[in-house]
Design a protein that fits this description.
175 residues; mainly alpha; GMP Synthetase, Chain A, domain 3; three-stranded mixed sheet; 8 helices
């Protein structure tokens, strides 16, 4: 008798949860309740999109700069993003690669955070899915100024080496 009770309980649970039939989606792939996907489902049901047949725009330096400015206009509400892009130089290296010149390594990490947004926009506008960028850190040499008397004398010595003979002529004068 206990088996009948257990069976009745299980059948009541099964009846309480109606079985959903798999309905085909717009792509023809049956929709399922779980989120995993099998390789056979993808290979059998999903049509392959060939990137070779897509129209790809030939990217030039001028077009890249125009797209860069369009990107600034599109995201002008995001102040942090616009400040990051605003004064950076972009240079086209090849058809699929361009560089962004930044003053220090901090900007390199910032561009990694926004890489999806930047490349998504540029790939959409050009149709080139292989488009990539590389961040190049350009370190500018800061002119060292002479502040101490010895540093000033060394700077003058570079400009006019005859000052050394003048100093030897008058040893009492401190440079």
């Amino acid at each position: 008798m206990e088996k009948n009770v257990n069976t009745e309980v299980h059948s009541e649970i099964d009846e309480a949860q109606p079985q959903e039939e798999a309905k085909p989606s717009r792509l023809g792939i049956p929709q399922r309740r779980f989120t995993s996907i099998s390789i056979s489902d993808v290979q059998q049901n999903k049509p392959l999109v060939s990137l070779e047949n897509r129209e790809v725009e030939t990217l030039t330096q001028q077009r890249l700069e125009d797209l860069w400015n369009e990107l600034l206009v599109k995201y002008q509400d995001d102040e942090k993003f616009c400040a990051l892009l605003a004064d950076k130089k972009v240079e086209l290296k090849s058809q699929n690669l361009f560089t962004i010149q930044v003053p220090n390594l901090f900007f390199d990490s910032q561009f990694r955070d926004y890489q999806g947004r930047i490349l998504g926009f540029l790939r959409e506008m050009t149709g080139n899915e292989a488009l990539q960028f590389k961040v190049v850190v350009v370190v500018e040499q800061v002119e060292k100024r002479a502040y101490m008397p010895r540093e000033k004398f060394d700077e003058l010595l570079k400009v006019n080496p005859a000052i050394l003979s003048l100093r030897k002529l008058f040893p009492d004068i401190d440079f």
